[in-house]
């Protein structure tokens, strides 16, 4: 099984089995898979569709995937030059403080920086400040698997041996070509559990409730086109009301990445689908 390169807030590795039981019966060699908020790509890598469109608004994240696809060996070499030390960590983290300096880095150097920071920062958290600068402190791990050459090469082979389009932009544009019979999985930044529990800084600008409403409208448009749609989110009253006309399945998930240790642990989520999963038997396993 292919495994994600990055740890990512909201990653789906802990609930993949549940998500698979809610999938429609599709021939992944025929239909196209769409994931507009690809994040750590756990769902994509578990399904391994032959045709897919993946997207994220986070430029650094998408740059990682593009470099893995087109220049994996250069990425492995660049990663091997990084060391797990506090001094080196803060030096590398500071690279984006000067726009001219950061702009002068190659795509490979930026991708290696993103992976290095992800593997050595506190709790694998990706967070940026109001100016879009990465601001997570050093994780102080005794050991960190920075290079991950086997994962990089396996991911690269998958991306190159299949029809995988990698996009960086708005989630609605990413699914604009989805047609009847295709499958879309939405895993957006989640609705907040309380007014003080906001963590939407995966990219500068966040994802407020106005965006949650726009996403729900897009979900309805895709449903009307005959596209199979699945969505994950927090089980808040706001979200369950937005998707009240669809099939809502509840799941208890583990939250492993958060800026506060007290906020990590069990959380109630929903998986919303626009098709009936009770009339089919699961054909998916690990």
Order of helices and strands: HEHEHHHHHHEHEHEHEE
Main pleated-sheet profile: 7 strands, mixed
Number of helices: 11
For the record, the count of structural domains works out to 2
Distance between the termini: 8 Å
Mean pLDDT across residues: 89
CATH fold node name of the largest domain: Rossmann fold
Stretches where pLDDT falls below 50 for ≥5 residues? Answer: 198-202, 259-264, 280-286
Architecture of the largest domain in CATH?
3-Layer(aba) Sandwich
The strand line-up of the biggest sheet is 3-2-1-4-5-7-6
Please estimate the helix content.
25-40%
CA-based shape: globular
What portion of the residues fall into strands of 2 or more residues?
5-15%
Number of strands: 7
Question: What is the top-level CATH class of the largest domain?
Answer: Alpha Beta
Estimated structural class: alpha/beta
Quick description:
By secondary structure, the chain is α/β, with parallel strands linked by helices. About 35% of the residues lie in helices and about 15% in strands.
Give an overview of the whole structure.
There is one protein chain. With 286 residues, the chain is α/β, with parallel strands linked by helices. The termini are close together. It has 2 domains: 13-58 and 162-273, Rossmann fold (3-Layer(aba) Sandwich), CATH 3.40.50.150; 66-149, Adenine-specific Methyltransferase, Domain 2 (Adenine-specific Methyltransferase, domain 2, Orthogonal Bundle). Helix 3 packs across helix 7 (107-120), helix 4 (72-80) packs across helix 7 and helix 4 (72-80) runs antiparallel to helix 8 (149-161). It has a 7-stranded mixed beta sheet with strand order 3-2-1-4-5-7-6, with helices on both faces. The longest helix has 16 residues, at 209-224. The chain is globular. The protein is built from 11 helices and 7 strands. Strand 1 (33-35), helix 2 (42-47) and strand 2 (51-55) form a beta-alpha-beta unit. It catalyses: a 2'-deoxyadenosine in DNA + S-adenosyl-L-methionine = an N(6)-methyl-2'-deoxyadenosine in DNA + S-adenosyl-L-homocysteine + H(+). Belongs to the N(4)/N(6)-methyltransferase family. Keywords: Methyltransferase, S-adenosyl-L-methionine, Transferase. GO terms for molecular function: S-adenosyl-L-methionine binding; sequence-specific DNA binding; site-specific DNA-methyltransferase (adenine-specific) activity.
């Amino acid at each position: 099984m292919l495994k994600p390169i990055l740890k990512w807030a909201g990653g789906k590795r802990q609930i993949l089995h549940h998500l698979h039981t809610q999938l429609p019966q599709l021939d992944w060699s025929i239909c196209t898979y769409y994931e507009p908020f690809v994040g750590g790509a756990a769902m994509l890598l578990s399904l391994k569709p032959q045709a897919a469109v993946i997207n994220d608004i986070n430029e650094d994240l998408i740059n990682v995937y593009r470099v893995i696809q087109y220049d994996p060996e250069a990425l492995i070499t660049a990663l091997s030059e990084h060391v797990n030390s506090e001094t080196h960590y803060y030096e590398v983290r500071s690279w984006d403080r000067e726009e001219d300096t950061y702009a002068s880095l190659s795509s490979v150097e930026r991708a290696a920086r993103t992976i290095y920071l992800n593997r050595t920062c506190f709790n694998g958290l990706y967070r940026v400040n109001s100016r879009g600068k990465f601001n997570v402190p050093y994780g102080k791990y005794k050991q960190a698997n920075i290079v991950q050459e086997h994962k990089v090469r396996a991911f690269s082979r998958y991306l190159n041996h299949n029809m995988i389009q990698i996009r960086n932009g708005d989630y609605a544009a990413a699914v604009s070509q989805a047609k009847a019979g295709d499958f879309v999985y939405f895993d957006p930044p989640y609705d907040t559990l309380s007014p003080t529990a906001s963590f939407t800084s995966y990219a500068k600008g966040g994802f407020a409730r106005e965006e949650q409403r726009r996403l729900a409208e897009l979900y309805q448009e895709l449903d009307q086109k005959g596209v199979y749609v699945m969505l994950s989110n927090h089980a808040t009253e706001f979200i369950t009301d937005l998707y009240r006309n669809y099939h809502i399945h509840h799941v208890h998930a583990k939250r492993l990445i958060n800026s506060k240790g007290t906020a990590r642990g069990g959380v109630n989520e929903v998986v919303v689908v626009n098709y009936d999963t009770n009339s089919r038997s699961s054909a998916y396993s690990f």
